[in-house]
Amino acid sequence: MRLPEPPRYGDASLGELVPSLLAGLGVEGEANALDLPEARRVCLLLIDGLGAGALRSHADTAPFLASLGGRRITSGFPSTTAVSLTSLGTGLAPGQHGVVGYRTANPADPGGTLSSLRWDASKVDPMEWQPHMTAFERAVEAGVAVALATPQAFGGTGLTVAGMRGAEHLPAESTGERIAAAAAWLGSSPLPALAYVYLGDLDATGHRSGCRSLAWLAELGQLDQAAETLAALVPAGTALYVTADHGMLDIDPASRLDVDHPDFADLLDGVELFTGEPRARYLHTAAGARDDVVAAWRETVGARGWVLSRDEAEAAGWFGDEIDARVRERIGDVVVAAGADLAVVASEREPRESALIGMHGSLTPSELEVPLLHLLPEER
Question: Is the C-alpha dihedral spanning 61, 65, 70, 73 positive or negative?
């Protein structure tokens, strides 16, 4: 099967967004790859799980968002929250920043893994895992104030420290509290300012109920109203941008390949560590077993996905221009990216993840393409 188009690193991906915003805020040395206009105040709203295609298909449910000007950009690979938020916060592709999945190998602990959303900072130092200076740190150093309106529990987590350190945290639980906190903070800042607002309920609803469900549509309608309220509350002269970390697909139970089922157990022959998530898997192989594992998985997956060695995935641009040496061992020797009708689950070792209805992580347009919408001061 023909390889999918890789993420648009360096041109139109989430990694270019914050540097482009900072360039518009007057920070010297930041590349404005997205050609965003100058502004003194910026509010960036990220709606977890809102794919560009899904928004277009349901424009009647989200009339405010659908009315905004903008374009499509891409997430990175895997198209999953931890990877995307780290790209957003650092301005780097996954092969550079090193947060390369939902669950990845931890080379410092042979056989051990790191769960990027449940990061145990006592075991894995996020400053060592992702040592590059973040875009937010660069902003603050240049005299731009940055704040994150996110849940209290996000403050100081491994993922936040790795990908978004340098910003002030505005702990706020509900959608309304986050919107109000960001708007008030922007209004009080004497400096050029960037406020980031994270809303995660659409993604959570899609995982539980599916992204074609009435529940998902109802959640989208509520978020559309929230975005409109945010636009009304931010101070005059603020540029509002709306984006997402990834889209989503509903995967039928009949389309799931379960490696914990006896019929597929031989797929783990020669595999020493099985990581990633259902739509983007990493297979760490025993010495000399890689080619046999690739052949076995290609035969089973067939035209329902893509099975590449790590070197092939790097050459295809899945992780950016190149994979840093410190990151290579976190990615499996074999990379499995699912097509539109496949999920590689493990019902016994990962029962919760295997039971999800809506999923993401691979390179299909439904997962990879996200909106970048704007409401500029002159458009109000």
Answer: negative
